[in-house]
Amino acid sequence: DAGVIQSPRHEVTEMGQEVTLRCKPISGHDYLFWYRQTMMRGLELLIYFNNNVPIDDSGMPEDRFSAKMPNASFSTLKIQPSEPRDSAVYFCASSFLRGGYGYTFGSGTRLTVV
Amino acid sequence: DAKTTQPNSMESNEEEPVHLPCNHSTISGTDYIHWYRQLPSQGPEYVIHGLTSNVNNRMASLAIAEDRKSSTLILHRATLRDAAVYYCIPGQGGKLIFGQGTELSVKP
């Protein structure tokens, strides 16, 4: 298996633009998580899905952030409009059986909003 | 969510054992203790997890106190590749909340 695949690896965008981050989880995994990492705040859980259904989105910072999982093999995290304070590394992770076999993280998307 | 306390940083020499402590005194009875690590410029990776008994795998050992209020991750022979931030996370797997972790540096 290729692991959790995130795209793009790097994204630079201007303030006010829409940004879409993509994630392909490991086949057969039933949980998908989106995290954000900054030096100031560390790793923050934004939202997670179970069987494509959002379970907890209490970590989503504002209405500018939205996440979808239209099927078991694809998820998106969208920021509209983007702001400089959204600059961070965004990680997607997937797991099977409530993490009983561990989460597998993707390589992350480094987002820079200028 | 259970609160955890880990040292901010630790140092080790290559080829020596490393014991990384974690206090989680508010852990619930059904929470597992998970350990992840994050190598520089990479996403976190799973290391090990356990509930009550000590656990071993190819990467590390996990020693859990009898009262479950603390645990220790043991790297039996540290290598340069083990330099990373190590996170101790009590939880049930459906929602893992990362703290600040311990930054481990390994000296040759």
Structure description:
Chain A contains no helices and 11 strands. Helix content of chain A is 0%, strand content 54%. In chain A, strands 2, 4, 5, 6, 9, 10 and 11 form a 7-stranded mixed sheet that branches. Chain A has a 4-stranded antiparallel sheet with strand order 1-3-8-7, with no helix packed on it. Chain A is globular and about 40 Å long. Chain A has 114 residues and is an all-beta fold. In chain B, the strands form 2 sheets. A 5-stranded mixed sheet of chain B has the order 1-9-8-3-4, with no helix packed on it. Chain B has a 4-stranded antiparallel sheet with strand order 2-7-6-5, with no helix packed on it. Chain B contains no helices and 9 strands. Chain B is mainly β. Chain B has strands spanning 9-13, 18-23, 32-38, 45-50, 55-56, 61-64, 70-75, 84-91, 102-107. Chain B is globular. Classes of the chains: A mainly beta (114), B mainly beta (108). The interface between A and B is medium-sized, with 26 and 20 residues.
